[in-house]
Amino acid sequence: MDFPILSVILLSPILGALISVFIPKEESKIVKSVAGITTFISLALTVIVYYLYYTQHLATGGMQFTEFIPWVSDLNVNYSLGVDGFSLPMLLLTNIIGFNAVFSRSWSVEKRGKEYYILLLILITGVMGTFVARDLFIFFLFYEVVVIPIYIMVIIWGSGSKTKAVTKEYAGMKLTIFLLIGSAFLLAAMIWMYMEAKGLRGGAATFDIAELAMVKFSERFQIIAFGMMAFGFTTLLSMFPFHSWSPDGYAGAPTSVSMIHAGVLKKIGGYGLIRVGLFVLPMGAIAWAPVIAILAVANVVYAALICLAQKDMKYVVGYSSVSHMGFVLIGVATLNLIGLNGAVANMFAHGVMSALFFSMVGYIYAATKSRYIPDLGGLAHQMPVAATGFVIAALASAGLPGLVSFVPEFTTFIGAFKTSSQLIHVLAIIALTGVVLGAVYVLRMVANVLFGPRKEEWDHVKDIHGSYWIPVVSLIFIIVLFGVFPSLLMDMVNSGIEPIAAKFIQAATQIGGNI
Amino acid sequence: MVNFALENAWLIPFLPFMAFVLIALVFKPLPKVSAFVAITCMLTSFVLAIQIGIGVFLDAERFIEEPLKHTFTWFSMSGLTIEMGTQIDPTSAMMLFVVTLVASLVQIYSLGYMHGDVGFSRFFAYLSLFAMSMLGLVIAPNLLQMFVFWELVGLCSYLLIGFWFFKYSAREAAKKAFITTRTGDFGLLLGLLLLQINFGTLDLVKLGEMIPNFTQYGLTASGLTVIAIILFLGPIGKSGQFPLHVWLPDAMEGPTPVSALIHAATMVVAGVYLVGRSLILFQTVPAAMTFVACIGAFTALFAATIAVTQVEMKKILAYSTVSQLGYMMLALGCGSLTASMFHLMTHAFFKALMFLGAGCVLHGMHNELNIWKYGGLKKYMPVTYWTFLIGCLAIAGIPPFAGFWSKDEILLVTYNMFAHGHQPIYLVLFIMAVITAGLTAFYMFRMFFICFHGELRDEHAHPHEAPPSMLIALIVLGALSIVGGLVGMPWLEHPFGYYVRLGEFEHEAPNYFIMVGSVVVACIGIFTAITIYLKKSVSHEKLAEQYKGIYTVLYNKYYIDEIYLWLIHNVLDGLGRFLWWVDITIVDGIVDGVGKSTQGLGSILRRAQTGKLQHYALVLFAGVVILVVIMAMTGTSSASSMLGGVR
Amino acid sequence: MMGNIGLEHFLIFSGTLFCIGLFGALAKRNVIAILMGLEIMLNSVNINLVAFSRYATTGDLTGQVFAIFVVAVAAAEVAVGLALIVAIYRDRMSVNVEDFDWLKW
Fold first, then answer.
1. Integer angstrom CA distances of residue B316 from B319, B369, B555, C7
2. Is the confidence at residue B340, as pLDDT, over 70?
3. Which tens digits make up the pLDDT trace of B397-431?
4. Cβ contacts of C105 on chain B, cutoff 8 Å
């Protein structure tokens, strides 16, 4: 396909940002519409790409819709884009969430709206870029593009919490610095990998991920480099004990940023971990997998238990998100096709589900100006539609079959039991208790916020109206669609993960022994 | 028509699902239309279910030999293929019939019961969603589909128990139900995963062939036993067995039609159904089967003892349901799919009947729950009275009513497990079952006499009979409670057990001793109830005083709810609070500590910037001196390279 | 003649002068005194250059030429330095270098 559809998808929000610069700052509604239109264009094109890939390329797999423009030829850095079965669901997820983030309600955006939407559009582009980059340098570049807008958005439009002594400045600073420390290790590992590859390829250096994957790095190098990269990526995935930026980051941020944070920012970590970590450094992954598995289970159980003690809505959803990333990491640690499929599908499912959750929580916060659960209650009387969205998000979080997250979780656990490692079997059983705990904290929050006697102090709040319907309808539709027809997602993911999983069988035989 | 139904069995759950979608998206503002859509779809499903029943009934051998299956792949990858579809055999045909029948009757009943309620449309939407979920569960050809619909059934239960969500008690009961069943589902899911891993499939037919040969798949007998027991945790939760029975009595917060449909006839039996469908697994490892039987018998007795003291009609019926579910589990624990399913069917009839009757009473007594406020309702609600009496006689096990045949079947198989050389524990279970039968008769008639006989105790009440829409259901179920058990009479050539069975059909000779004995025990229970509550020759208040200790324990349900709440608040939540403290103080402490120490280091180092020119100059000079000394010591080549020259 | 005056005599002399100048530059409080110290250091360097040129190399006058450059630069530098001092004095009424610490942490 010659039409550079991926670049258009990528640059459409930037175009929106550029146009918005010229719109006067009082007209923030127009800016919102521009943002909405450009993200919708990206979304529509992504759906088309997804459809085309699903119908035409699923059997052959591989990178499609590729674009290549040489950039810094001395270093062999190129503007190289492409999507395959693994990155396409992530791209779709980004666009879904980006589009819905524009229309989600956050009370703080009513001031300085223009700048907010411009930053949001830049953020969306950055995230998209990481998923379509085939060149490691471009990947890192877009990753850095993501961190700065988030910092600014949290600092200016964020909010503090009643239950924890956290200001928005603290939350923003913590998030940014944590991510930058992680990316420092990532950068170091990346450059080291570049130099090693240059040596092993006889002087022909490259940043292209697929070509790097074919280089036979030494086992010692792989283990150390993977450790460094994993530190960077798992920090992004909020793996215990590097997770503490995440709950504060969620709670402190405005709604759209929380949606993007939960929905896609963490998934960049997962994507990088699998695409760069597992794919390029399989032996390193095999060495580190037990550690990742143990920490992942800590994520699931530790964060789930902490959720029980939370009284701030955003912290409940925040820690729940940390807990769900544990499931993703378990899938990654299994290093087999089924587990990895489960992990990636779980990334997609969790993304959509928590976007809806944060959208609803943000709406309630904006309407009632309170995130403190004991103050709320009986809101289903005043806001039945928001309550419906909230409950569906809660049920998806609990992994109810028929909604998007059941099949990925089930697949992840099958993958976990398919490994020959006893440790992972035991860990998986412990993680399964997360299924029960997940229902407890989520239903508790639902009951305390939505149900019970009507409270007159909330009689003035308005239910979902106008453009706020968009996130509710579209996200519920996606959650139910992929829940009832999981093969739409699973087949795509499978075609992307197959080559990655194949590397493990190869790598395992190289070092001898099973995975 | 029969063939159409057999080939398109998927329509049976699909039609109520369509009703749900239509009501939720389109007809919600129009309550009468919503009800019409829901009932029409449900009745159509019922007609289809009858067609299937006829088809299976006429050709039973063929369906038992090879169930009729239609499946499609839901998702798959290398090494894992999950299918969805339908499976028709006598067991599922029977369940389809029962579920669609009771669901249709309950929906018709709800026209009267929920009339005027603000959430009328929502109620019918949820009822339809529930019907879809239960029917999908029942015709599932594999355990995963069963699990999917099992969870959906749990969801509907949550939505319906908490239907009147503005009530604090209702919202808490709904949450409790979901979480308690979820706790059981942990085991169910783990068991499913282990089965899938070891056998590569969750298909019922395939598992039925593979499980007896489990050693070929690398499993030991004890390993398979563990899997079976873990799997059984799910049914313990869903079917309200001890110790996860606590949600069922609280579930009475929901509207009475919900209690009748979900918590008597259908959802709670999902656990029994699951064990029944996987009975081959339990038969292969007898230790697991005995475990099931023990839990079942214990639950039956346990719940019956509590029911004796309760003062709310629905609560008594709820504990009675727990008890009868225990009977069904006991039957499965004796390896008899027949007895269990038979009792499931008859219980659905008479329990739904009694719940709907209780609903009529509540309707007539304007939602007064305490039975001591009732009395003498016989003259105000004759239809309710007579149908309720039929229900009581059925559950007590008086022939020829339905409950007698099925309960007798259970007692028979339990006794046979003991008599035909199996463990002596089955004798204990048999005795427990017999005692429970007596207690059942007692507490049911205790309730019956207090409510319907004597004089109306509350002068301010104006009880009246229910409207016809509510009475239809009572009459139909009453009729079924009379004749429904006759299909299982042991003198028939093809009794119930011929159609619904696991393994070869054996024509059991009727054991008259047990038959007569069970009737005697039931009569003892009834006469005791007559003595205390009808004739009032013995004062129930004096009895309660005399046995105060036991009475208090029973009335407070053995304090199990209190124990669980204590555990959850102090252990679970306490752990949560502790870990949050850890997260804030230790993990965040380290993170903040890194930040603070960097700041600290910075504030120390900045003191070198004195601002004084001469200090800077001194440092500059000292640096040069050091460099020169190094150059002098290491020789000229390093000196020239430091100065930037060529080596 | 009092014995041969060799290179080392000049080097010691210039080294001593340099140290005197350094001490003046680092230890004096009056800015003008610091400037004088700088001048002394520069002149000591001049002596050093000329001495090496005279004793260590033959023929060419590199060192002396360099010394002339240094003299010129020193003159220019003193001019600028004195102008700065006058400007600061006009603002702060002080020529005490310890008072000029606005770049302190």
1. 5, 11, 11, 120
2. yes
3. 888 888 898 998 899 888 888 887 667 888 899 99
4. 606-607, 609-611
Between B and C, how many residue pairs show a Cβ–Cβ distance under 8 A? 31
Q: Could you tell me if B607 lies within 8 Å of chain C, comparing CB atoms? A: yes
Query: Which residue from A437, A439, A380, A400 is spatially nearest to B153, judged by alpha carbons?
Result: A400
Least confident of B243-252, B304-313, C57-66: C57-66
Burial B174-192 (b: 16+ CB within 10 A, else e): bbbbbbbbbbbbbbbbbbb
**Subunits with 3+ C-beta pairs closer than 8 A to A:** B
Residue type, B396: A
Residue-by-residue DSSP string for C28-80: -SBHHHHHHHHHHHHHHHHHHHHHHHHHTS-S--HHHHHHHHHHHHHHHHHHH
Determine the pLDDT at residue A2. 67
Please provide the DSSP assignment of B526-551 as one string: HHHHIIIIIS-SS-HHHHHHHTHHHH
Q: Is C58 on the interface with B (CB under 8 A)?
A: no
Distance CA B334, CA B420 (A): 12
| C-beta of residue A487 within 8 angstroms of C-beta of residue B75 | yes
Check: CB of residue A128 under 8 Å from CB of residue A10.
yes
pTM: 0.89
Q: Which two tokens stand for residue A123?
A: 């953020």
Nearest to B227 by CA among B275, B141, B288: B288
Q: Within 13 A of B430's CA, how many CA atoms are on the CB side?
A: 21
Coil, helix or strand for B308? coil
Report pLDDT for A515: 39
Chain centroid to CA A307: 20
d(CA A308, CA B579): 10
Q: Which two tokens stand for residue B197?
A: 């891993």
User: Residue A513's pLDDT is what?
Assistant: 46
Q: Are A358 and A297 in contact (CB under 8 A)?
A: no
Q: Do chains C and A touch (3 or more CB pairs under 8 A)?
A: no
Q: Inter-chain contact C105–B613, Cβ cutoff 8 Å?
A: no
Top-confidence range, A138-142, A453-457, B610-614, B627-631: A138-142
Kindly report the number of other CB atoms within 10 A of residue B50's CB atom: 18
Residue B442 near residue B325, CB atoms below 8 Å: no
Mean pLDDT computed over A289-312 = 92
The C-alpha atoms of residue A378 and residue B548 are separated, in whole angstroms, by 41
Confidence class for position B265, pLDDT limits 50, 70, 90:
confident
Predicted confidence (pLDDT) per residue in B478-511, tens digit: 898 888 888 877 777 777 777 777 777 777 777 8
Per-residue confidence (pLDDT) for residue B645, from 0 to 100: 67
pLDDT in tens, B133-177: 999 999 999 999 999 999 999 999 999 999 999 899 999 999 999
Do B611 and C97 lie within an 8 Å CB cutoff?
A: no
**pLDDT, tens digit, for every residue of A396-425?**
999 999 999 999 999 999 999 988 888 999
Question: Which residues are B86's β-sheet partners?
Answer: B70
Half-sphere exposure of B316 (CA within 13 A, CB side): 26
Beta strand residue intervals within B368-502, DSSP E: none
Residues 6+ apart with CB under 8 A from B415: B426, B430, B511, B514
Give the residue ranges of DSSP H helices in B308-424. 313-333, 337-364, 382-396, 402-419
The Cα–Cα gap between A476 and C103 comes to 60
Residue C1 has pLDDT above 50, yes or no: no
For B610, the closest of C26, C27, C101 (CB atoms) is C101
CA distances to A48, B150, B226, B281 from B230, rounded to whole Å, are 45, 16, 6, 12
Model ipTM value:
0.91
